[in-house]
């Protein structure tokens, strides 16, 4: 199928799963696809790249996601929790380095109850930044309390929309509850980020097309696409792991279908390809999320192996990524980086 025809279908709002599937199967027009996504990125969100300062504040998790190194049955990981004052130190130094968004991410750690979490949110919001949470599945009331305390955005990847695969990958969890969470977050007026893993064992190309259509259906404000990378201390340790190009294609298609959203060049992409984030920024992405915690924690937040920059400190990471972004002729945004929706 020709890409121009595909774009016309999107404009007419008649895009079908079959067309997306065809493009995902056909590798002969990949360069054309990436160029088109890059062009639409430029036309819709411009040359500015938004930097989000990521604080991975706890690797303790009650869940058992089969692919994730933080899963509770993994005993080969040294667990840590960063408490409020230290989180605030990282947030302050990120603000000093020029970050306009702080992202708080963790495993599903019940130590951070509503009281503790809202305290942290309120303190960070005093720093005049946008705040994103990525702390997993919660109740409507919990999400509501975080919003009232000042959180602006929430990241919760759907991971996969394939019901059977979802069940296999997430013991004791359900796709319905994941969708309920995203629905609640939308109702509460968060900017909502979601996304999927690409290359999970038994994941079909057809289901990736469904994932992309799901992003459109819920009109997500941000989409993070990550290649699945097998972790040696998980049940999926022997799985196939060369998912870089496929994840880039899913990302580029997402840009074409939702042209005005924010799309990060994910750390997992750079883990699989030494130039992964720059390639992603040239294929539809407009956001980068550098880690702003110190290296003692980075190695321990091992959702997958060989994560990049685990030996770096925040200042170095910050200047390194800024230089990379400038080297491809892009600029660093000094706005909060909310989605500006096309009408
Ligand atoms: N507990 C939070 C944050 C999860 S970690 C939540 O549930 O949203 C952030 C993301 O890392 C996950 O959404 C998942 O897509 C990704 N991830 C986990 N294990 C991975 C692996 N082995 N390879 C690549 N990405 C992985």
Written description of the protein model:
The structure is a single chain. The protein has 343 residues and is an alpha/beta fold. The protein has a single domain (40-332), classed as TIM Barrel. It is built from 14 helices and 8 strands. The protein has helices at residues 3-11, 17-25, 30-45, 84-96, 114-125, 140-149, 163-169, 175-187, 205-217, 244-257, 267-272, 276-281, 295-298, 314-327; strands spanning 48-58, 101-106, 130-134, 153-155, 191-198, 222-227, 287-288, 331-332. Strands 1, 2, 3, 4, 5, 6, 7 and 8 form an 8-stranded parallel sheet that branches. The chain starts with a helix and ends in an 11-residue tail after the last strand. The mean pLDDT is 96. Bound molecules: S-adenosyl-L-homocysteine.
Short description:
The chain has 343 residues and is of the alpha/beta class.
CATH superfamily heading: Aldolase class I
* Coarse morphology: globular
The CATH topology corresponds to TIM Barrel
Percentage of β-strand residues: 5-15%
What is the CATH first-level class name?
Alpha Beta
Bound molecules: S-adenosyl-L-homocysteine
Q: From the 3D coordinates, which CATH architecture would you assign?
A: Alpha-Beta Barrel
Quaternary state reads: single chain
List the helices and strands and how they pair.
Blueprint: H1 3-11, H2 17-25, H3 30-45, E1 48-58, H4 84-96, E2 101-106, H5 114-125, E3 130-134, H6 140-149, E4 153-155, H7 163-169, H8 175-187, E5 191-198, H9 205-217, E6 222-227, H10 244-257, H11 267-272, H12 276-281, E7 287-288, H13 295-298, H14 314-327, E8 331-332
Parallel strand pairs: 1-2, 1-7, 1-8, 2-3, 3-4, 4-5, 5-6
Bound molecules: S-adenosyl-L-homocysteine.
């Amino acid at each position: 199928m020709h890409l121009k025809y595909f774009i016309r279908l999107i404009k007419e709002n008649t895009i079908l799963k079959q067309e997306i599937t065809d493009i995902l199967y056909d590798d002969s027009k990949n360069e054309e696809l990436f160029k088109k996504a890059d062009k639409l990125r430029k036309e819709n969100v411009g040359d500015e790249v938004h930097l989000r300062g990521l604080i991975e504040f706890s690797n303790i998790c009650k869940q058992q996601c089969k692919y994730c190194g933080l899963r509770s049955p993994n005993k080969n990981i040294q667990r840590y929790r960063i408490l409020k004052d230290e989180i605030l130190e990282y947030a302050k130094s990120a603000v000093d380095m020029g970050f306009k968004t702080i992202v708080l991410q963790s495993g599903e750690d019940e130590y951070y109850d509503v009281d503790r979490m809202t305290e942290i949110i309120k303190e960070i919001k005093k720093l005049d930044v946008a705040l994103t949470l990525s702390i997993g599945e919660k109740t409507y009331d919990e999400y509501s309390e975080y919003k009232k305390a000042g959180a602006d955005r929430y990241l919760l990847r759907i991971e996969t929309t394939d019901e059977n695969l979802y069940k296999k990958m997430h013991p004791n969890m359900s796709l319905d509850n994941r969708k309920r969470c995203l629905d609640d977050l939308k109702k509460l007026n968060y900017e909502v980020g979601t996304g999927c893993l690409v290359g999970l064992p038994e994941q079909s190309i057809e289901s990736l097309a469904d994932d992309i259509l799901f992003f459109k259906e819920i009109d997500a404000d941000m989409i993070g696409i990550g290649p699945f990378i097998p972790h040696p201390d998980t049940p999926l340790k022997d799985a196939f792991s060369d998912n870089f190009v496929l994840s880039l294609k899913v990302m580029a298609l997402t840009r074409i279908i939702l042209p005005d959203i924010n799309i990060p060049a994910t750390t997992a992409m750079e883990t699989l390809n030494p130039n992964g984030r720059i390639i992603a920024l040239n294929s539809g992405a407009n956001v980068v999320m550098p880690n702003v915690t110190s290296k003692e924690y980075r190695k321990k937040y091992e959702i997958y192996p060989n994560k990049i920059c685990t030996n770096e400190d925040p200042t170095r990471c910050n200047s390194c990524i800024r230089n990379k972004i400038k080297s491809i002729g892009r600029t660093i945004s000094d706005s909060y980086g909310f989605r500006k929706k096309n009408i």
